[in-house]
Write a structure and sequence with these properties.
- The chain is of the alpha+beta class.
- It has a single domain, classed as Hotdog Thioesterase (Thiol Ester Dehydrase, Chain A, Roll).
- 27% of the residues lie in helices and 37% in strands.
- The strands form two sheets. A five-stranded antiparallel sheet has the order 2-4-5-6-3. A two-stranded parallel sheet has the order 1-7.
- A hairpin with a 3-residue loop joins β4 and β5.
- The chain is globular, with a radius of gyration of 16 Å.
- 27% of the residues are buried.
- The mean pLDDT is 96.
- The structure holds coenzyme A.
- Coenzyme A binds next to β3, β6 and α2.
Length: 157
């Protein structure tokens, strides 16, 4: 059994400067570009957590709450919120950062990464240690989302 890990130690942050290549036809950050950044961050967090390769099983809940524009600084912050036996739920929040470094959230996403071995078979992941009330509440939400995902799969949609 691998050593348990604290939520705090799973946190990763990555910033991007929005350039022309990231912009869609009507001048905003292209949603697909942001989805790629979110998926990459979730994969890195998942790999560090599991210490194995991981694959994206599902993007569960991806909410665009606001836009980002040319020359904006966009910051992604991710963390592990829940783990099953072989799956890891990662939450990635995306912010636009102003010059005074205040941040406005523009997206929240939950991504399910599955730890896999050399034969691409799911393998067990470490247990997650949550220490604060917020982390405990997020774990409870994660458990609910995990159960709902299972139910959806059982029902075939
Ligand atoms: C993800 C994958 C490895 C799961 O394999 P599987 O044979 O279904 O394995 P299992 O049924 O034992 O499930 C393994 C874990 O994945 C989770 N899982 C599987 N499908 C899932 C889905 N659609 N949504 C959320 N979780 C899922 C299960 O709940 C289980 O988690 P747990 O062990 O924590 O309970 C397999 O479906 C796969 O390789 N999918 C393609 C992934 C991929 O290519 N991603 C990149 C897309 S370009």
């Amino acid at each position: 059994m691998k050593e348990s890990k604290r939520v705090e130690d799973t946190i990763a942050e990555q910033a991007y400067l929005i350039m022309h290549k990231h912009i869609n036809g009507y001048g905003r950050l292209f949603g697909g570009q942001l989805m790629q950044w979110i998926d990459s961050m979730a994969a890195i967090i998942g790999k560090r957590y599991a210490q194995t390769e991981v694959t994206t099983a599902a993007i569960d809940n991806l909410n665009f709450r606001g836009g980002a524009y040319l020359n904006d600084t966009v910051v992604l912050i991710g963390r592990v919120t829940y783990v099953g036996n072989t799956s890891i739920e990662v939450r990635v929040d995306t912010y636009v950062e102003a010059l005074d470094e205040t941040r406005k959230m523009i997206n929240r996403a939950y991504i399910v990464m599955v730890a896999i071995d050399q034969n691409e078979q799911p393998v067990q992941v470490p247990r997650l240690i949550f220490e604060t009330e917020a982390q405990k509440a997020e774990w409870a939400g994660g458990k609910r989302r995990y159960d709902l995902r299972k139910e959806r799969r059982r029902e075939g949609f």
